[in-house]
Amino acid sequence: MDLTQVIKSRHSVRKFSSKTPDWRDIIQCIDLMRYSPMAGNIFSLKFIMVDDQKKINELSKASEQEHVNEAQYVLVVCSEKKLTLNAHPERGETYCKQQAGAAIQNFLLKITEIGLSSCWVGLFDEIEVKRTLNIPPEVEVEAILPIGFERGIPKVRRKPILDSCLYFNSYRNKFMKKQKRVN
Predict the structure, then answer these.
(1) How many CA atoms lie within 13 A of 104 on its CB side?
(2) How many domains, in total, are found in the chain?
(3) Domain of 90?
(4) What are the CA-CA distances from residue 23 to residues 40, 111, 155 (Å)?
(5) Which of 48, 62, 98, 183 has its Cβ near the most Cβ atoms within 10 Å?
């Protein structure tokens, strides 16, 4: 698949089959997260790959997302913000969120390319996730990503038309069709 096809076919999966993915494939996808942009080139992300079914069950409860429990693997993405906050005191929090998002998107696209599926879970009880995985208090949990093979046929999801969300030079300024330029 070329990149455009991967982007257009990526979708959130909430039904996983019982087939177990090869963990080495998942590690390759995690490795590509290191290539996402980082403010000041300070890499603040940490990853916890979970295959212990008891812990996966606890993560499912902490996120109130039953589909997490169906996954054979779960990736938990965390930020150790201290160095980024020291280097960028006013914008460090924002940068950490942005770089976590960029890394997660790299992961989701690669997972899609190799035929696996996931769902970005951002709603969870952080205290419970930290307790389950022994994450220190100063480390922030960014996302939970269940990983597996999709069960069933994906639903076709509508996306907004570009004209409804693209502006030029100022907010709500729609593109004017075929403007002639005078040289």
Answers:
(1) 24
(2) 1
(3) 3-155
(4) 31, 12, 27
(5) 62
